[in-house]
Amino acid sequence: MTTGSMDSDDADETGLATARMGRRGAPLTLIAALTLLLAAMMIGAMQLGRYPIALADIGGAMLRLFTGGAAAGQIDTVLWQIRLPRILAAVLVGAALSAAGAAYQGLFRNPLVSPDILGVSTGAGLGAVIGIFLSLPVLGIQLFAFLAGLATVALVSAIGLLVRDREPILVLVLAGVVVGSLAGAAISLLKILADPYEQLPAITFWLLGSLSSIRNGDVLSALPMILLGLVPMILLRWRINLLSLGDEEASALGLETHRLRYLIIAAATLMTASAVAIAGVVGWVGLILPHLARMLVGPNFERLLPTAMLMGACYLLLVDTLARTMASIEIPLGILTALVGAPFFLWLLVARRDGW
Amino acid sequence: MSAPLLEARGLAFGYPGRTVGRDVALSLRPGEIICLLGPNGSGKTTLFKTLLGLLPTHGGEVRLGGDLLGRMPRREIARRVAYVPQAHAAHFPFKLLDMVVMGRAAHLGLFAAPSARDRERARAALDLLGIADLAAAEYTRLSGGQRQLALIARAIAQDAAIIVMDEPTASLDFGNQVTVLSEVKRLASRDLAIILSTHDPDHAFSVADRVLLLQNGRLIAEGDPASVLTPERLRAVYGVEVAVEQLSRGQTVCVPDYDQPRG
Q: Range of B220's domain?
């Protein structure tokens, strides 16, 4: 798959007839390959689990879905009520976190920034913990998480707008750190106050991220928000490149940098908050995957966005499938993404000295 | 000639809450090269940022082709003035052509990506500066001189009548300094108006039609290079003894006296 993309890139550079492929938009070979990979992984993930389902049975179930035949009991229930929603959620959350991470890394001119740099995850975490503490139903917890995530970034952005005569990006990052650690303190307090048998395990599980309780409704509630956040990223895909040059240069090139920056922050926050609301705090995905995508297709956001999203979807689907099949108990996602992400990050730090 | 492309009158400039300089007047016409000289901290970069509308004026006015700068949207400013910052380290390894095509932003709709025509423009700019063969190279891997040329190419692709260059020769080796300055001359011969800052009076002698000498935020002299850059003024501004000599080829050079301790 990678070879295909390399070929098209080479052709691109020697100016052969494949100009359609690489010059504008995304390198199509790579995108197509990643899409196929994702589809194959989704079908594979549908078969795996405590209740294995053969490929033929999946085909049969799909057929029944379209022809309206009688449901074959357990297979259809497991497939459509439990497994498929979870697979779709993994794909959605992975793609959303990667897109947000790619946008933030360009925006903050730092390849080591993750989508929760402005505190969206910690804020959403606090919202969810409050929801659990108040013994709210699942939907209430998700709503609390979503709104608290948005509120945190709104607060951080407001601080960024208030502080006028300092480097705006530095102010945002610092405000994010401070507000995030405040929310972290509040989370710790609630953990101490929470009921240790009922609430504390739920809080811990949520803060480590998991897709184990995903239902169709969760996917449907997150999808519109994530798509809404994606729209400005797709529309502004080229201008996001210019923002990564820094404020003064981008302004001198004719951009209204302030407006654009806050628009992108709003979009990325919407995507991250929706993802975190249904999946909990899943670290590393939004940091590592955009990075890997950049190594494959370069920093041009027009190519980076689709590549990072597809890779993020594949990655989180892989990790989530491992999380539910590796052991007899569910392993929280955050643990696995950290186990894979942290060594990879160290490798980047040591082995790649230039050209993030 | 018509109204100047760039004009400042009674201009006070600085950062929010801190005025750095005042009473600056200048005007720039097509094909003209103005060289801004002044010691470190005299306000050259701040003045440039104000002329570009990146910092608000603290008094007086700046006009682009007769229109007040303060009222113009960024996009309109960028169509009239291009900015060449000091060659910098980029954060991401953009291809050189991708970098140069960013100069087209002011000519594109908000949601548009550059078209084949914009890429042609960018390529032509690279061609003009003789670095077309680097189009696919990563910006982060270029040398300082190549980066500076790339940023100039981006300004050309921007298609503005004025180019503001902040110390385009700083931190370049001798050969690259000469290359960049001869490109500056060539651009002016194509009727572009250029204002650049430099630390080297010799550069002013070689390319400038007019020299502005800035000290502590005020213009202390203005005019053709020979009348502004006298040994007395250079001593007053920089605190060193300098002889200004005419070479047999007609060029004028500054020769510092290295044996005289700083006054």
A: 6-229
B77–A299: do the CB atoms touch at under 8 Å? no
Closest-CA distance of chain A to residue B177, Å = 22
- Which of A252, A298, A283 lies closest to A345, judged by CA? A283
Please indicate, yes or no, if residue B263 is contained in any of the structural domains.
no
Residue of A nearest to B113 (CA): A238
Task: Tell whether B153 is covered by a domain.
Answer: yes
Q: Is residue A242 situated within a structural domain?
A: yes
How many domains does chain B contain in total?
A: 1
Distance of alpha carbon A238 from alpha carbon B9, whole angstroms: 37
- Domain membership of residue B56 (yes or no) is yes
Q: What are the b/e assignments for A245-275, b being 16+ CB within 10 Å? A: bbbebbbbbbbebeebbebbbbbbbbbbbbb
CATH of the domain at B167: 3.40.50.300
DSSP B215: E
| Domains of chain A: total | 1
Q: List chain B pLDDT tens, one digit each, 263 residues.
A: 567 999 999 999 999 889 999 999 999 999 999 999 999 999 999 999 999 999 999 999 999 999 999 889 999 999 999 999 987 777 789 999 999 999 999 999 999 999 999 999 999 999 999 999 999 999 989 998 899 999 999 999 999 999 999 999 988 889 989 999 999 999 999 999 999 999 999 999 999 999 999 999 999 999 999 999 999 999 999 999 999 999 988 889 999 988 876 65
User: Can you give the residue range of the structural domain that contains A96?
Assistant: 30-351
Which of B16, B78, B140 is facing A254, going by the closest CB pair?
Answer: B78
A61: tokens are 């179930």
**Residue B74 touches partner A, C-beta closer than 8 Å:** yes
Query: A209: domain CATH number?
Result: 1.10.3470.10
Count chain A–chain B contacts defined by CB atoms under 8 A.
91
Tell me, yes or no, whether B1 lies in a domain.
no
- Chain A residues with CB inside 8 Å of B113's CB? 24-25, 237-238, 302
- Please report whether residue A23 resides in a domain: no
Question: Has residue A11 been placed in a domain?
Answer: no
Q: Tell me B168's DSSP state.
A: T
The Cα B190–Cα B192 span in angstroms is 6
Q: What are phi and psi of A51, to 5 degrees?
A: -120, 90
Contacts of A237 in chain B (CB under 8 A): 113
**Residues 30-69 in A contacting B (C-alpha not used; CB under 8 Å):** none
| Residue B156: closest C-alpha in chain A | A253
The answer to whether residue A134 is domain-embedded is yes
* Cross-sheet strand order for the sheet of B33-37: B81-84, B162-165, B193-198, B33-37, B210-215, B218-223
CB contacts of B98 in chain A (<8 Å) are: 241, 300
CB B233 within 8 A of CB B247: no
**Chain B touched by A165 (CB under 8 Å):** yes
What's A154-167 look like in SS3? Answer: HHHHHHHHHCCCCC
Residue B112 forms contact with A (CB below 8 Å): yes
The distance between the two most distant Cα atoms of chain B, rounded to a whole number of Å, is: 61
With CB atoms and an 8 Å threshold, state whether B92 touches A24: no
Three-class SS state of B253: strand
Question: How is residue B199 written in tokens?
Answer: 């630390």
Contact between chains at B105 and A239 (C-beta distance less than 8 A) = yes
pTM: 0.88
